[in-house]
Write a structure and sequence with these properties.
single chain; mainly beta; four-stranded antiparallel beta sheet; 2% helix; Reg_chr_condens; guanyl-nucleotide exchange factor activity
């Protein structure tokens, strides 16, 4: 049944429950959640004030609802109040808030259903920020659109906002991209890391507080394997399994004590980190043993440790070792385990935990999608 929740510590979900909630990708916005199931169908729930669920309405949902009838969704990401996803045919679709052109459809009209971004069929990945979006194509090119007040599109300071995708430079070696509130970072195929946009809190990692209007390399290392941008901070992992963060640190979101950092600082000494994701002021990461760790802002219980205490160092979520590298971080967090079961916790004011309620949860609870 939709909305069924099994709390951490309860018996493992039955095979039947796991099969109907099998998820392949999950995304968390400010107050909404979307997930692509292993059957390539798309489901969303939570806040829907600007159509961010994509179900053709502006009605909030406290339990998962299927979006359309398509069974060709491949990957998804959620911005503050909008959503973008890539289909198996390489087409790109966005919906929700479009006040700054972040949907990329050539307008500033918000959409309550998915609208296609151009007619390209070579989109590989997409990252949705607060008001700007960036995506990579299969040819290694990088494209951005939406709000550009802080040069977060990487194309200079003009235009103020772009309503259609604009190519960032001429490089064809972009491997992945991540968007924060007003900054962007990306990794290239040679393992170098590049950031641009706002750096008021040092979130670009370039050693200063000056913004950059085009991609600037972070250090000289060539071993970066993944990067994630939060509101005004950034975290990344290297091939050696080390974890690094920089930028604003008011809640401990860098995983270290002290004030903001303008250059990457290593989080602890562990060399077993494989994947890191950042939300507004919170971050989580998975280790090689498939344990999940979170830190930073915990005001709504999003660290999943049963408290609302902010953490300045990674704190383990339970004792489980079945977490995969696919999880999403916001004021609520969702992630799935090796059996493809989906779990969410933290803020639930808009029903974004998908359990049929609006009750905040400080520990993981399972979300079972309809059959």
């Amino acid at each position: 049944m939709a909305g069924t929740v099994v709390m951490t510590g309860a018996a493992a979900a039955s095979p039947a429950a796991s099969s109907v909630s099998a998820v392949s990708d999950v995304a968390a916005g400010y107050g909404h959640t979307c997930a692509v199931r292993t059957d390539s169908t798309l489901w969303c729930w939570g806040s829907n004030y600007l159509g961010e669920l994509g179900d053709g309405t502006t009605t909030a949902r406290t339990a998962p609802v299927r979006i359309g009838t398509a069974a060709t969704w491949a990957s998804i990401d959620a911005g503050t109040s909008y959503t973008c996803a890539v289909r198996t045919d390489g087409s790109l679709w966005c919906w929700g808030n479009n006040f700054r052109g972040q949907l990329g459809d050539g307008t500033t009209t918000s959409r309550t259903s998915p609208v296609r971004v151009g007619d390209g069929t070579t989109w590989a990945s997409v990252s949705a920020g607060d008001s700007h979006t960036c995506a990579t194509r299969t040819d290694g090119s990088l494209w951005c659109w939406g709000f550009n007040r802080f040069a977060q599109l990487g194309i200079g300071t003009d235009p103020y906002y772009a309503t259609s995708p604009v190519r960032v430079g001429t490089a064809t070696t972009w491997a992945s991209v991540t968007t924060g509130f007003a900054h962007t970072c990306a990794v290239r195929t040679d393992g170098t890391l590049w950031c641009w946009g706002d750096s008021t809190d040092g979130q670009l990692g370039l050693g200063g507080l000056s913004f950059r209007d085009t991609p600037a390399q972070v250090g000289t290392e060539t071993t970066w394997t993944g990067v994630t941008a939060g509101y005004a901070f950034t975290c990344a992992v290297r091939a050696q399994g080390t974890l690094w963060c920089w930028g604003e640190n008011g809640y401990g979101q860098l995983g270290v004590s002290g004030t903001h950092r303008t250059a990457p600082v290593q989080v602890g000494t562990a060399t077993t980190w494989t994947e890191v994701r950042a939300g507004f002021d919170t971050a989580c990461a998975v280790r090689t043993d498939n344990s999940l760790w979170c830190w930073g802002n915990n005001a709504t219980g999003q660290l999943g440790d049963g408290t609302t205490t902010h953490r300045y160092a990674p704190t383990r979520i339970g004792t489980g070792t079945a977490w995969t590298s696919d999880f999403a971080v916001s004021f609520h967090i969702c992630g799935f385990r090796g059996d493809s079961s989906l779990w969410c916790w933290g803020n639930n004011a808009n029903g974004q935990l998908g359990d049929g309620t609006s009750t905040q949860r400080p520990v993981p609870g399972q979300v079972v999608l309809p059959a």
